[in-house]
Automatic annotation (TrEMBL):
<dbReference type="InterPro" id="IPR011990">
    <property type="entry name" value="TPR-like_helical_dom_sf"/>
</dbReference>
<protein>
    <submittedName>
        <fullName>Uncharacterized protein</fullName>
    </submittedName>
</protein>
<dbReference type="InterPro" id="IPR036249">
    <property type="entry name" value="Thioredoxin-like_sf"/>
</dbReference>
<keyword id="KW-0802">TPR repeat</keyword>
<feature type="repeat" description="TPR">
    <location>
        <begin position="189"/>
        <end position="222"/>
    </location>
</feature>
<dbReference type="InterPro" id="IPR019734">
    <property type="entry name" value="TPR_rpt"/>
</dbReference>
């Protein structure tokens, strides 16, 4: 299926040109988006594009960096796979959101793109509030982000809200949010860790162990994480105390 991303003015072509550079032909069933981070595209803002797409992509769409796509004059460039659709002039957060909504949704939708960006901004605000230990405000921002139903990244938002709710002592709410994140992305190790943290806070040690073990099976590299090691050590300590 062909889709056209229109620019500010009416556009009836899928050919990317300097005067109509916001038009692009795309296909459905996108599985991966690769963003050029080579020198020329990087200077034009491709790292911001990569960050935005990574934060907003649905769980079934992988976002990765790549080398030169041989269109330096049209940068920043990205390619949507497996169709191999090249998209140029993708150097702003707004443009990245437009492209993502179109390739994932099958049609241009400026409202969906704007809501996705607004949800991302709320997630950023929530992160700052969490860093300041203001978990109530963080929970509020994350709830607002979820209500906007962005194109993707909702599993991350649920995970973040799980962290905030656990810090507030809302164990059942934290567990529910972790489950929501896993319903959206069953292979999300951070959500399993949040689930384990909630079970641990509720003294459900066997369930906590199973959640942590599942996270480790999905991503064995977390074994080296200091925070993960601390979780396991704490679990073992609490389990030993519980034993008669």
């Amino acid at each position: 299926m062909e889709v056209v991303i229109p620019g500010p003015a009416t556009c009836n072509t899928s050919i990317s040109t300097p005067s109509r550079r916001r038009c692009v032909m795309v296909t459905s069933d996108i599985q991966e988006i690769r963003v050029c981070t080579n020198r020329s595209c990087r200077r034009q803002g491709s790292m911001q594009t990569l960050e935005t797409l990574t934060a907003l992509a649905p769980p079934n769409v992988a976002v990765k960096s790549c080398g030169c796509l041989s269109r330096c004059g049209n940068g920043p460039n990205l390619v949507a796979l497996p169709a191999g659709t090249l998209v140029g002039h993708c150097g702003t957060r707004a443009r990245a959101a437009e492209v993502l909504v179109t390739v994932c949704g099958g049609a241009f939708d400026s409202d969906a793109a704007n809501k996705s960006l607004e949800a991302l901004a709320l997630r950023s605000k929530a992160e700052m509030e969490r860093n300041n230990n203001n978990f109530s405000q963080a929970e509020l921002f994350l709830s607002q982000a979820i209500e906007l139903t962005p194109i993707g990244g909702i599993h991350i938002t649920y995970k973040d809200r799980s962290v905030a709710r656990l810090a507030l002592g809302n164990h059942s709410g934290a567990l529910e949010d972790a489950a929501q994140a896993l319903a959206l992305n069953p292979l999300y190790p951070e959500a399993y860790i949040c689930q384990g943290d909630a079970f641990l806070a509720m003294s459900q040690f066997d369930s906590a162990h199973n959640s942590y073990l599942t996270a480790l099976q999905i991503d064995p590299s977390i074994r080296r994480s200091k925070s993960f090691k601390a979780r396991i050590a704490n679990l073992e300590k609490l389990t030993a105390v519980k034993k008669p």
